[in-house]
Amino acid sequence: MKRLSQGSKPDLVNNPPHYNQGDIECIDAIASALGPVGFHAYCRGNMLKYLWRAELKGGKEDLRKAHWYLHRILEQTEEPNDIP
Fold it and tell me: What is d(CA 5, CA 28) in angstroms, rounded to the nearest whole number?
């Protein structure tokens, strides 16, 4: 787990500290539990959630979170049509 230096602000998009309890990140446990098809659906659902609420709640931070989930799908996809 990354430690923050005194006065540092946590990165709530790429490394939110509340999802890093122990040796495995929550997102990795979810990916393992759901498998590739389920995990991609989970990521797409989260992208929609963050895009939907961006104007009403989180603004740019929500847009960054939606982008993070898209990047996670693309990271696990080797060919353009590999998305389950």
Answer: 25
Domain range holding 63?
23-75
pLDDT tens-digit readout, 32-72: 999 999 999 999 999 999 999 999 987 999 999 999 999 99
Instruction: Please give the angle made by the CA atoms of 20, 43 and 37, to the nearest 5 degrees.
Output: 110
Task: Please list, in sequence order, all residues whose beta carbon lies within 8 angstroms of the beta carbon of residue 48, skipping any fewer than 6 positions away.
Answer: none
b/e 52-77 (16+ beta carbons within 10 angstroms → b) = eebeeebeeebebbbebbbebbeeee
In a domain, 51, yes or no: yes
pTM of the model: 0.71
Counted domains in the chain: 1
63 within a domain of the structure (yes/no): yes
